[in-house]
Amino acid sequence: MTQQHPSRGEHLRTALALAASGVPVLPLRAGKVPFGNCPACADNDCGGRPNMKTPGPCVCTGPCHAWAAATADPEVISSGPWRRAWRTASAVAYHPGGAGLTVVDLDNVDAIAWAREHLPVTQTVPTTRGEHWLYRGAMQSANAVRPGVDIKSTMAYARWLGFGTGTVTALPDAVRALAASKPAPVGPGLPITTVPAPAGGGECRHRTPAFLERGIAMAEQRITDASEAVHATVYRTFLAVLSTHGRCGCLTEGHIARLFTAAQTKGETARHCTDAWTNARTKLGL
């Protein structure tokens, strides 16, 4: 009989305890990344989970779809597919927005020093390189709102690292302003998609805010989660975004900047981003 790693059972117990408090959880595999989609859900062929606000609710019982798989249902968390995932999981994650929380992820000492000067005191959780500051209230997630600072809330996941110290306080306007004033282009020569809308004069379905926002957020997450072959992942992600949204003119400079920011946060240069975007457009004939 194979001996289970001592921490694996603890991950499941932690997940169930969090779920009992109404916190949606999901398992993470090595590298702090979510488990991949099952064959039935590959490339989101299933249509996505209900809380992703997409057509065709997913009926998969496994921990698919990254943050969107997060659940507070103890029966799901303890089910066969999830239990198998917990056996090999390296950590527990949660969906802050689903729990009505926002995490300000401070990645280094400079970011922490900035937060202590500019943000209200709240519950603080130590991380490997910095701190998580937790606030009560949900908002749209955003990466790299300033050097070493990410915001994780809706449509994102955060690693569970314990309760930390202090008391959770209300989400301040200062944090919301960070996402609202997030810098646009990170590098020079940021391309803008200017292809015409579909022929026939009909309204572009991709202009639906939820559809477009979900697509961009998932693309950002796919790049952020890449643990290897980052350059190839960036190109494939750009290609996927353009194949869906590139011919209707719904992409804005802000959307493209978000993708470039995610790529550059993973170490890609501005030139690599521009080349990958250009190559993707060329391949699709845009």
Structure, described:
Helix content is 37%, strand content 14%. It is of the alpha+beta class. Strands 4, 5, 6, 7, 8 and 10 form a six-stranded mixed sheet that branches. A four-stranded antiparallel sheet has the order 2-1-3-9, covered by helices on one side. A hairpin with a 3-residue loop joins strand 1 and strand 2. The longest helix is centred in the last third of the chain and has 17 residues, at 209-225. The chain is globular.
List keywords for this structure.
disordered N terminus; alpha+beta; four-stranded antiparallel beta sheet; 10 strands; globular; 37% helix; 286 residues; six-stranded mixed beta sheet
What layout of secondary structure does this protein have?
Layout: H1 6-20, E1 25-29, E2 33-34, H2 74-77, H3 80-88, E3 91-94, E4 101-106, H4 109-118, E5 123-126, E6 131-136, E7 142-146, E8 149-152, E9 158-159, E10 169-170, H5 173-180, H6 209-225, H7 230-245, H8 253-265, H9 270-284
Parallel strand pairs: 6-10
Antiparallel strand pairs: 1-2, 1-3, 3-9, 4-6, 4-8, 5-6, 7-8
Helix pairs in contact: 1-3, 6-7, 6-8, 7-9
